[in-house]
Amino acid sequence: MSKRKPFSGSHRGLVVAFDVGTTFSGISFSVLDPGVVPEIKSVNRFPAQIPGGSSKIPSVLYYDAIGVARAIGAETQLPIIIEQAENEQWIKVEWFKMHLRPKSYASSLASRHIPPLPPSKSLVEVLADFLRYLLSCVKSFIEETVLPDGVSFWASVQNRIIFVLSHPNGWEGLQQNYMRQAAVLAGLVSNNISDQDRENEGIIILDAGGGTIDISAYSSYGSGEAIAFQEISRPECCFAGSIFVTEEAQLYVQDKLRGTRFYGDVSAITDSFDRTSKLQFRNSKEACFIKFGGRSDTDLALDIRSGQMKIPGSDVARFFEPSVKAALKAIAQQRSGARRTITSVFLVGGFAASTWLSSKLKDGLQPLGLSIYRPDTHVNKAVSDGAVSFYLDHFVTSRVSRWSYGLRCYIIYEANNAEHHERGYITSTVTGKLQVLNKYSVILQKDVEISNAQEFRSSFCRETTTCLNSISVDILKYEGINKNPAWTDVDAEMYSTACIVTADVSRISHTTHRKPGNGSIYYKTEFDVILLFGLTELKAQIAWKEGNGVEKRGPAQVMYELD
Fold first, then answer.
1. pLDDT tens across 294-310, in order?
2. Would you say the CATH fold of 197-400 matches that of 13-186?
3. How many CB atoms lie within 10 A of CB 286?
4. CA dihedral in degrees (132, 134, 139, 145; nearest 10)?
5. Taking the domains of the chain in order of start, what are their residue ranges?
6. Which PANTHER family does this UniProt record tie to the protein (predicted)?
7. pLDDT, tens digit, for every residue of 166-204?
8. What topology is assigned to 13-186 in CATH?
């Protein structure tokens, strides 16, 4: 890995990354001192956390009846809080991140197990409450630890902190929009955000988290301080994280204890499995023992002795099967679509601590000639550290388009074109021309390598009875298997609106034409839609030619339709 360069700014600054996970969340940050090489540090002290505890806190909140957050993070595990929550009927909110998932990933498995949000709170509000809490945590930690005077330092940078929010690689514009709304509501930023190992060897990063398993493939180029990485295959995101292993365990325990005096202990047994046994499990031939009660809690017929429930290792192994199969399938898809030979898989994330997961992936990957590596420390904060590194180091210079993007439009009817003849035509009320509808005009094809500054553009025109002052175009996303989609009425269910691009076109010259027949005047406005996909967020511009042939550009706003 290349040596990080000293910070070139003229004033002290701060980068903060929030990794809001399905089950656990973490914070990393870097103080930017002029002329000093930035270091990535983690918040490892949170309210109510045991001293010397983890660099992660539970992604859990308790709300009271009127929607006020009463406890967040490690606070929710305090016995006094649990008792108060039960007495006052607070609502426990967990796995809220899963409500952000794109519709295309809403599998029956994921949908069945996601707890609902409180009736009085929206997803954005819950996420904002959690981000606001994380902000208070990093503020306190920095004020207490940054030398020589953390309080003064925070006060000097608090209005110009760079925030980086990580998310699964399956999240797109709509999910990023929700996260941005939550960041604004939480007070992280204001609402006017500015637009600001061997050469060529292919590797896969498998981020196994609580809710999702995210797989991305990269290759390196350059060396030393000039090293950088390119994404070499479309990223994969599957809902097969560690929470689903816990769910399988819960279903098993429920079935076994239904109708017995221990059925009320299902939740305690499941929680104990989730905290300890799940990550400790390593051998399908050895039984798993889950501690949940005392010496008097015994029923040998149910495999319960002295408050411990025994589960055969073969059954525990089955709890992991859906996650292992999903991960291996996603890796195979990455490998088959990669532009370089994949040689290694790096397993990170909180679920990477599972020895069984690692060993089963190794068993599945070795026959394919793939080596699997698991960093020996701090895999549970790899995402938040990586988010800060993404901002500081800019190692990733290109990525691969997940889907095809384009516009639905019409084209002039050609009588000798079989596809046109099949669809028929309509007569434009504006121009009187015969035209065919539902043509898909591709701006960006699927599986195209995109550099950070690369532009994709297509030319369009609007013909109207009055001069246009603004335009609005729907950018369609095609998620089907057709490599060259041409018509939106073919494989129609695979098309959806990715976003809506709007722009001011009042400065564009409009040409006038006359409609055949009655000679009425109509206006023709010609322009290019320019899309930039290179960074994680889609951006758009509009371009046009002036009378002297010089291209002019104007900003375009990208908006998303809410689910």
1. 889 999 999 999 999 99
2. yes
3. 12
4. 170
5. 13-186, 197-400, 404-559
6. ALPHA KINASE/ELONGATION FACTOR 2 KINASE, HEAT SHOCK 70 KDA PROTEIN 12A
7. 887 767 777 888 888 888 888 887 665 443 344 556 888
8. Nucleotidyltransferase; domain 5 (3.30.420)
